Amino acid sequence: MKNLSKVFLITALSFCLVKGVYSFEQWNNLSPEEARTIVKLLDDVYKYYIVFDTINHVDNQGKTPAATTTKQVFKEMEKKGWHSARLISATDKALNKENMPKDEFEKEAVKVLREGQVFFEKTETVEGKKVYRAATPVPVVLKECKMCHVYVKDEEVMGSIIYALPLGQ
Ligand code: HEC
Questions:
Q1: Rounded to whole angstroms, how far apart are CA atoms 142 and 51?
Q2: Can you give the pLDDT at residue 17?
Q3: Ligand 1 neighbourhood includes 126 CB (under 6 angstroms)
Q4: Ligand 1 pocket member 51 (CB < 6 A)
Q5: Distances from the Cα of 95 to the Cαs of 37, 91, 110, 167, in angstroms?
């Protein structure tokens, strides 16, 4: 948990350094280009952490899987108003059915990511507000993934992280 806090502190500091300390107050005026940069930064942090955590703790019975921790982090980030995100399955054999693609965007994302596209994005209007949505692939990067996800094949795109950030209106 300590390592995770460090990662987020570094992420927050990077934003402050890049955009000035008051940048958070302007979050609601994001352009799609800015939202894309933020998603790419977050994606690197989350994916680094998921792989690091899996390599280091996978043989520890009883350790919470990286996916479960990640979902908890996503919940917290959403509560704080930074972004929302979902870790979803790109196969029809999700360990948790809750992680199956739900809406049109998620279904389309899974399709194009499995076909080899590396990034998928759209600006949508949800309840009258503009939202930037993006999807990145989650491939089977380690053999350790298959300890629990026994059905996946090496390097297959088995999932996706789906992000949503509010845009300037
Ligand atoms: C220790 C067991 C374990 C390992 C190892 C593991 N996972 Fe998972 N993974 C889970 C569990 C349990 C869930 C469901 C969590 C939930 O929704 O609460 C899950 C969910 C997922 C999901 C969402 C789709 C689904 O199946 O529900 C993706 C994508 C995923 N994991 C990717 C990976 C990747 C990539 C690796 C290797 C880097 C990996 N996992 C390693 C246990 C594991």
A1: 8
A2: 42
A3: no
A4: yes
A5: 31, 10, 16, 33
